[in-house]
Amino acid sequence: MKIQWVPYLWTEPHPVDSQMLDRLEQQWKVKLPDLYRELVTTYQGMGPEPCAFNVGTGNDAFSVLLIVSAESEKKAYSVNEAHRILEPHVPVGISPFALTPGGEYLCFDYRNSPEQPRVVLVTVEMSIHPVADDFASFMNGLYSG
C-alpha cells in the first residue's frame, strides 16, 4: 500500500540533511535503517496515511515522525528530546523515531543488533511491546484503521 505523508507540525516538508543523521548515528552509536533515513530526510514532522499498526492483541496509530533537525519551537517533537525523556526508564538501545496519538513512542530496538533494529512501542508506563522485526516491515504493515 502506498503511504501518503500528511502535514502535522508544518504545512510543508522540512528536509533534513544527511550530516544531521550521521551525527544522530554517532550519538546513539547505531546505524539507522536506510528506509528511515530516506523517509525522515523528507518527511520529518509529518504523519503517514495509512497509519494503523498492530501491537500485542490490539492496534495503535503512527501519528508523527519525530524531527531530527534542531527546531527549538518544536523541541517536544524531536528525537533528542524523546530520547532524553525515555533514557532513564528504558534499556540502552531503545531509540525513539515517532509518536502515537496517545503520547507513546515508536522506537528502534537495537538491543540485539546495532545495525538491524526491531520496532517496538514504549507505552506511557514505560513498558516495551514488540511491533515489527524491522523498520521496512513496520512501514509495509501500516493499514487504515
Structure report:
By secondary structure, this protein is an alpha+beta fold. It has one domain (4-140): SMI1/KNR4-like, CATH 3.40.1580.10. It has helices at 18-28, 34-43, 79-86, 135-140; strands at 4-7, 46-49, 52-55, 58-61, 64-65, 94-99, 105-109, 118-122, 128-132. The model has no long low-confidence stretch (mean pLDDT 92).
Features:
SMI1/KNR4-like, SUKH superfamily protein, 145 residues, 4 helices, Knr4/Smi1-like_dom, alpha+beta, five-stranded antiparallel β-sheet, two-stranded antiparallel sheet, 9 strands, Knr4/Smi1-like_sf
Number of domains: 1
Query: Which CATH architecture is right?
Result: 3-Layer(aba) Sandwich
**CATH class assignment:** Alpha Beta
Shape summary: globular
What's the CATH H-level homologous superfamily? SMI1/KNR4-like
- How is the main sheet built? 5 strands, antiparallel
CATH topology: SMI1/KNR4-like
